[in-house]
């Protein structure tokens, strides 16, 4: 319960109603408890509003009007269930055992705020003890993560061995807890049902019959936009009614007992494995959207008064009196006790220390496992040319082999994306009617056949679905590897990639983490790939704190870095250049099932003395070609550095090389302006100015998209001849 002290005994009146009478299953004692939580919730809002006016906290958004539905959920569900609430769920969190004191700590931004250590606004719930997973501000991003969470519970039930801890990789730091009949709660407002991710989540939950309860808390408004503008016909229940496998409830969410009953029925349906449930709760919003909003600007008094008549607190209070559960004196006593507790909680929160500025960079990445460390530095097994297994393999082959090795080693690894399965219709594979696809580039071929359809499977054609679900699974301790089929189509996942996955650890102050791998086929030089199959754009992602970004140029590096990506404790964007998948350049023998390369370690692919070329990906072979030509023709010795990993990147290797050669070119396939090279060039100019004999040069794609006609593609992307020209000009400077 929500209290920080033991509540004094309250007189339960018993004059007329039968003592054993229940209210949709809630006992008279539970009704009192419910009132206590609901009243606490409303009063925490009121105290926060006051504190905001006194400038002791900086933002306020209330759960007022949403208390009954929240408490109903807390009472009907289990502490071992999982919760993805939204900001109006204060009463739910209090009902689950979070305290008012913890909420005030969050409000003032105290160091001990359990939700974020002062990093997030108030009402962005995250209580690890209560399985309330860290929440954010973007409306609706919690939904696909909740899908992933529900999938994880089911996965661990089917693979209990996978839940065991293991030393030497991320599993050492990830406790897995699950229950066979657990369910996941996810809530949202009426306006948020307009987000595409809502529909993606509904679709996958229905399709996989997941134990997931969606709770739409419909207060009729999204800030000032009324529900009929959001939802065709004005009623979300009607619109979603065609989704198969769901249990549907539409309920007055200001009525505690009715709401409780809806949750009890929904939970039973989910726990029995029938599928998800959808509770559409009509609630009220007696305060404005937030303290930054004045609803009188768009809601007339009459409408607001109609709402007020349905206030869940008043309704429950009247019921307590009507049913002789508590008399007025009992209610007054209860409220006074809560008020006293809140005063004490506020006093303590206001005295709590703030976080210190030196902590701002804590928990951007795992504090436990450093993927740049020597632990991730292992040697390939010795190659024996006579052994067929050790004959040179392509990058595609070695990525496939690494995925296979890691799936054998770690049962928490699952792999999904568009077309990654061999064949979704398993019977075709079993009857050997088909060979199987295994990815549009065949990188995942044979993995479903070996590991089964619950470990390798196709996602819907929806990129946010892939990343959002991966985030939810990883939060629970799985190691999902999501595949984005083409980098050009990564953008529907951008909210998850920019605002969610890399932030889970930092925004929760290390209470949660979501280490997973997102593999992406990237790049051009395809001859015919054109605008939507040839883009780069890695600097958009290296700009995101919390996301590791890797971009190998050859088979051996791809194997070693992918293994590090899978075993490490951070989210990784693993960029695989399509053109390099099957190139002759950079083939290598299978390096064994333990070969790893630490992140942030560049490779000098050709040593030199006259200038340095810093590059990565498909420009590496082009830079080498240019370097060899200029050495032959002009006796200029070029050092070529392959960064391999873009975040973190190997600054020390750059420093050492620039100090030696005093001339430097930064080259990449992505467009020039505001590109990855701009950061490297700026740092060199800032830190190594006195070691430079010439300005830093950049070679990159022209600032346009990649065109279809090969003549145009060649003109747009940097070629070996462009690198040669830049090298010559730099040498002559
Ligand atoms: C993706 C996104 N767009 C816009 C916003 C700004 N915003 C915050 S809350 C909100 C309205 C949400 O309405 P609803 O889903 O009905 O929830 P309610 O606040 O009414 O409970 C908006 C537009 C946001 N936080 N995230
Ligand atoms: Mg709303």
Which tags fit this structure?
binds thiamine diphosphate; binds magnesium ion; elongated; alpha/beta
What do these coordinates show?
By secondary structure, the chain is an alpha/beta fold. Helices cover 38% and strands 12% of the residues. The strands form 4 sheets. Strands 9-8-10-11-13-12-17 form a 7-stranded mixed sheet, sandwiched between helices. Helix 1 runs antiparallel to helix 11 and helix 5 (141-158) crosses helix 16. The protein is elongated. The N and C termini lie far apart (74 Å). Mean pLDDT is 95; it is low at 1-11. Bound molecules: thiamine diphosphate and magnesium ion. Magnesium ion is lined by residues 189-191, 219, 221-222.
Helices and strands, with pairings:
Elements: H1 28-53, H2 67-76, E1 82-84, H3 90-96, H4 100-108, H5 141-158, E2 184-189, H6 196-207, E3 212-218, E4 221-222, E5 225-226, H7 227-230, H8 236-240, E6 247-252, H9 256-271, E7 277-282, H10 301-308, H11 312-322, H12 328-351, H13 395-409, E8 413-417, H14 426-430, H15 447-451, E9 456-458, H16 463-476, E10 479-484, H17 494-499, H18 504-507, E11 517-522, H19 539-542, E12 548-550, H20 555-567, E13 572-577, E14 603-606, E15 611-615, H21 619-634, E16 638-642, E17 645-647, H22 651-661, E18 664-671, H23 676-687, E19 697-701, H24 710-716, H25 720-732
Parallel strand pairs: 1-2, 2-3, 3-7, 6-7, 8-9, 8-10, 10-11, 11-13, 12-13, 15-16, 15-18, 18-19
Antiparallel strand pairs: 4-5, 12-17, 14-16
Helix pairs in contact: 1-2, 1-3, 1-4, 1-11, 1-12, 2-3, 2-9, 4-12, 5-6, 5-16, 13-20, 21-25
Magnesium ion (MG) binds near residues 191, 221 and 222.
